[in-house]
Amino acid sequence: MHVPDGFINAPVSAVAGVVAAGAVAVSLRGARRELDERTAPLAGLVAAFIFAVQMLNFPVAAGTSGHLLGGALAAILVGPCTGVLCVSVVLLMQGILFADGGLTALGVNITIMAVVTTVVAYAVFRGLVKVLPRKRRSVTVSAFVAALLSVPAAAVAFTFVYAIGGTTDVPLGSVLTAMVGVHTLIGIGEAAITAATVGAVIAVRPDLVHGARGLTAPLKLRVNGELVDAAPAAGPAPVPVAARSPRKLLLAGLGTSLLLAGVVSFYASANPDGLEKVAADKGIDAKVEDHAAADSPLADYGVKGLTDARLSGGLAGVIGVGVTVVAGTGIFWAVRRRRAGETETTSPSSLPESV
Q: What average pLDDT is seen over the chain?
């Protein structure tokens, strides 16, 4: 659903840029509470994984494809504020390096694909988790529903923005119907990917999943009709899960991202995605503009100078994953370090003694 330059006029694009900048600023502040020394590198990996999976367009209907938006996945794994930042980093890398999503429309894309999807998904997710049984399976089910609803919500958001600042005169009713219809189908794929990924991480490291926090409880036994805490097992005390290094998970996630972007992406659907299809059918793209980074060496997810399509696309995907994980991890470590610095500054030991 990457909006190119020319779909939305300059004034509305500027306003969307201000909204996006404000949302990113708020998210930076909120991410300080969500990130710690273990989840900061995980957030960088989540951004890289979203970049990789977005290269895997899957077919939906009538010559249309879809791809992961990622807001729900990021919000559930690392928190809503950090999730907004993860998707924003991906959109920035895609716009600058790969000419995917207009640069003047970057604010529109961040608002729709990062902010709307994350806010809607996390609100639905938290609501479901509160009413469903406190089990890991409930987290996966909630993630599925939240991701499913976040995609048509983004389609509605795009239609709203287009109604205010669209550059072509198109019946908005038909645009809304077409956008919501096709993106509901895309939402099913988004939901399946999100639920599968969240379920896989919960299975090995539930302590690292932001949306699963608070689900674990000490083992209890029923004695004489009353529940009591179970006695610890004899022998050496096991290392708490929360104290274990996430290195294995991070390496596995990075390897998966590189595999998806470098190899599996070659087999992605070549059909236009939901927005491209609706734009072509309804005439929204009548005034589309050439991308400012169209001459980038990595434009259109290929490496200029390489004639082998498989090698060109695979290498571009690997570069994209690498750049995204480095940029994302750097940002999230900086956010984490600033939080640590603020904590140290305001700790009781650092405050001046009263006279």
A: 90
